[in-house]
Design brief:
251 residues; globular; Rossmann fold; 6-stranded mixed beta sheet; alpha/beta
Length: 251
Amino acid sequence: MSEDMQSGSLAATLRALTPARVALGRTGVSLPTRALLDFQLSHAQARDAVHAHLEAATLAATLSQITSSPVLRLRSAAPDRATYLQRPDLGRQLDDSSKALLLENQGQSASFDLALIVADGLSALAVDRHVPPLLTELFPLLSGWSLAPITVVEQGRVAIGDEIASALHAQISVILIGERPGLSSPDSLGAYITYDPHPGRTDAERNCISNIRAEGLSYTQAAAQLAFYLTQARRRQLTGTALKDETRLLS
């Protein structure tokens, strides 16, 4: 790309429309130093996000301030971050102490409408930043729903929500989880909705809302989409490929 193109109005317009690396220019046959350093910084931020540890106690305390539901701290069967990254299967199941804690906190209700699960996934940064404001937007939309105790899971994968919600006898589960970081999005949050959650559910039986963050899907938009999926899942008794978002709420 020529220097004229790089500094021209078309390049500026493209950069305003996307965080992708466009119109970078060149120095000889290489990238300009500024573009190269920016790439290296983004790569380092993505790596840091994958290896970061969730401040579970702080997050649980924050959630306790915005909901009247109990907040429980759980752990997967992965004993540490290194094992978690190498053994995805262990991130999909609870350790023994967490299983026991769930049994103690099933509550007086025989069942719940909804279980909300928060897991670090591959970006604890996303969870720390976005879960509290997202739930602040979501809770007013859940009037009339009975909520199971909210759970905060360390070293968790998406499927761990099935075991948790099943143990709590919840009809539907939502797991809010840090997504795999990209070079322009180290803090993207995802939400996975599952009707009749139990171990063995597949991704085809879930609905996913992705890229919840300041530069992506706003908290208000994400909460509205979640409320739609939850309402439709309860009415139609399903989630996954058979359930589509028909709200047209996104602008």
